[in-house]
Amino acid sequence: MRSKVGTGIISGLVAGIVFGMMMQMMSAPTPDGKQIPMMQMVAMVVRSDNIMVGWLYNLFNSAVIGGIFGWVLGRRAQSYGAGLGWGAVYGVFWWVLGAQILMPVLLGMPPFASVMMPPMRMVAMGSFVGHLIHGLILGGLFAALSKPKQIRDVQSA
């Protein structure tokens, strides 16, 4: 039997892979009018411009965020409905804290810069959808993995 934190880490990594694939397809405008891949912007938080560094940072954050989900919300996210509901709320929470406050500040911009700057608003909406999907996958998979194997076997039969 896995711990709630361990289950959260596994669920967070799966959600992070899906969100990472979404970010891989997105781009963001630069101050000089060009476009860069969103995953490169993620790497810039840790002072790199390498997309692989962006992936590693994304997966590290996804594991930590998943572990915190299991620790804080694990007891509440035992059914699929509760897992999806708490996951959605948690995804929106991380969109506000991570994408709207921490990331802009770490990149030298003011908090909520992406929603205040017209060229970045589409990026902000894509990020919102991505964080929401991340949360739904995290919460839904957490609930699925939290069920004892015997219950999963009976439900799938």
Using brief descriptors, characterize the structure shown.
mainly alpha; two-stranded antiparallel ribbon; 75% helix
Would you give an account of this structure?
- With 157 residues, this protein is mainly α.
- The protein has helices at residues 4-25, 38-44, 51-73, 80-106, 113-116, 121-146, 149-156, and strands spanning 27-29, 35-37.
- Strands 1-2 form a two-stranded antiparallel sheet.
- The chain starts with a helix and ends with a helix.
- The model has no long low-confidence stretch (mean pLDDT 93).
Spatial separation of the terminal alpha carbons: 22 Å
Number of helices: 7
Strand content: under 5%
Major sheet attributes: 2 strands, antiparallel
Q: State the share of residues found in helices, binned by percent.
A: over 70%
